[in-house]
User: Fold these one by one.
Assistant:
Number 1:
Amino acid sequence: MEIGMSVGITGAVGIAAGAWLRQRHRWNRDRHYERLASHEAETVLKFPVALSATVAEPSTLAATFDRERVIRTTPFLAPDCLEALRTEALATRSEMEPSFIPLHKQGHTLSYEKVIRLAPRSWSFFRSPQVVEWLQGVTGVPMLPTPIQDQSTLSLLCYQNEGDHIQWHYDHNFYRGRHFTVLLALVNRGDSNGLSRSVFQRQLPDGGIEEFETAENSLVVFEGGKVRHRATPAAAGDLRVVLSMTYCADPRISWVKEAARRFKDTAFYGLRALWD
Ligand SMILES: [Fe+2]
């Protein structure tokens, strides 16, 4: 009887201690994210974005986006602005994390948190009022950032080794509002007419495949939950670096979907995605 009571008390203390540690970690992470976010406004001011003098008027792309849920345009940025973003992104390559899921994906990623620390120009681009206004002109809905603890909200993707790719998939929407993915090509070099063999493609409703030429300075906007897409494998010597951003018309999320989102992100950032 006494042994049973002792085991019970020990178990209860262990559960309480575990809950306290989880709560403390959550509190620390939330404070950490608040500190990071507090630098956003000054970063956007410090690294202003300059759109290309010949950037497309968003209204000219809105009808296509409404029909196809995907558009591609180029050039998007002024040359100096693109060069600054590219130089910054290339300097982060050693900090990128490898991701590998057999038969599904292979590549390197710089997470949101590291982008904020190491690639402030990319952060500024993501939150630039000019860019957001342009995107809203295409989609016709508010383009709010998905939450800072969602490591996929803003990331740099790098396809640098032979076979780097991601297979057909949808970008699952865990949020209440429509969810959009925006890809800015910063680097795209290789032996395929000067471009990487890693090509962005979408599957058409009839099963066909549409290919999007994503040379440097091209921008692709798509509704990833509706558009099945992939990046084909890179060849040896290729280099493709993409700034990947997600926006949402309403970024509220239920705790069930938040748990599912974190589980999905373990594929990119390991087990820490479950509790960070
Ligand atoms: Fe995707």
Number 2:
Amino acid sequence: MNLTVLGSQGAIPKLGKYSTSLLLNISNSNILIDCCEGVQHQLRKYKIKLSKIDIILISHAHGDHYFGLIGLISTVSLLKRDKKLIVFCPTSVLKIIQSHIKHSKMRLNYDLELKSLNNQSEKIIFEDFNFIITAFPLKHSVYTNGFRIEEKKKRRKLLLNKAIEFKIDKVYFNKLTKSENVLNQDGEEIDYLKVTTEGPKSKSFAYCSDTAYFDKLADYIKCVDLLYCETTFLEKDKDKALSTLHSTTTDAANLANKGAVKQLLIGHFSSRYDDYSNFLKEVKVIFDNVILSEEGKKIQV
Ligand SMILES: [Zn+2]
Ligand SMILES: [Zn+2]
């Protein structure tokens, strides 16, 4: 699993800096998380093919999180996409997209599956053989979701020498890695635990933007390998965070601590700041393993 930061800023983009968007690559699927204005340029800049995006998740109806969506939906059609694109978004955003498609008489040559989010509690919204996406409610000025994306439990690893020693035919190797017992060439049942070891650990990522801190949030992101949490404001501007329902550095650090996550990525910085080193300093007082969002940064989870 790896994550590419496409935009690091809050509502107002700057020259060379974009509002919040992330691309998560998981088990050969590409999930675009929020879709900032200019996202197509960013994807091209970091050599991510637009046609490779499988799923788009939109957290809420504020423009800094979806202004790039209509352009992207249109461009991939012009580029003759033929595979399905799934977009999960609040009902309000879904209506805006449908309205644009209708009034511009846009003809899409691929299957655009728009899925409306209106859950008021934690809910699994997507599942395939490899991973699960869960949406959970955030606390913001409009209806907003966070997302948790988890790899499914990986298969066990075969110990080939042991399998040969126990006289197991190779047609059964697949079953063993799926934690199933098999019969060997002498008709004896062989416990999969004897001929396999634990497979690679499944990884998880959670995304929280935009939100004020609330206690229950830590339950939604518990123990993930990487947590993205917005830090629109430094602690000295806490009053602004409270009035606009955003998080400060201390909020994000407390969340990472309480949720016992492995690593924290912060972003969605207010345009009033130019020096981001204070963001790191303030978080590190409470939670040490923190990284700063920067356009183009790639993080191996
Ligand atoms: Zn925002
Ligand atoms: Zn917002």
Number 3:
Amino acid sequence: MVPAKLSVCTAAILLFAAGMPVSAQDKADAEFQSFKSDAVGAIKGLAQNLKKELQAAMKAGGPVKAIEVCNTVAPSIADAQSQERGLSVRRTALKLRNPDNAPDDFERKVLEKFVADIAAGKDPKKLAYTEVVRTDDGTELRFMKAIPTGELCLKCHGGNVAPDVKAAISKLYPEDQATGFKAGELRGAFSVTKKQ
Ligand code: HEC
């Protein structure tokens, strides 16, 4: 009986070494890894396209004209990236310009964590957070990346927004809260969700 036992054991070790059989945990881990790389790709796609459109619009017509671009183009780029990758990517913030970008409970918690991390001296460019969240209707894979305020942003989000720019913003966003930021502060975050 001893040799038989040994061979079962050896077979198990060999199977394990070959990565077989794949456990449910391994599968979940692999899905989470692939979600993370898709999320990073979606955020890069959204961030690069937004920056390109914003810079071109600022150059062509200054900030007043560029506000229209942010208003129409930002949501449509986010939708295109979401559809292409089978997930949802959006921007959100604690202090909002567009109320449609309001954070859900998870996003609020992470945004508050990013604010605390920056206050503790962490580099805002490197802040990201990821979690598998169990909900009533299944599992959600979530990923968030901080958006620091840069110099380019101050024309429309800074403490000293020109009156014509301010007027154009108020017309489209009467409840705007997204001014008064300083360079380096947290402006908001990209947020990616995939339901499973
Ligand atoms: C030309 C003016 C303008 C500039 C410059 C600008 N923004 Fe905005 N920003 C807007 C407008 C308009 C919206 C609302 C977009 C919408 O309706 O979704 C907005 C929305 C946002 C949001 C979504 C959350 C919210 O408050 O609705 C974030 C995050 C954001 N901007 C970050 C930035 C960053 C970072 C920069 C600099 C790289 C920047 N913005 C530069 C006009 C601008």
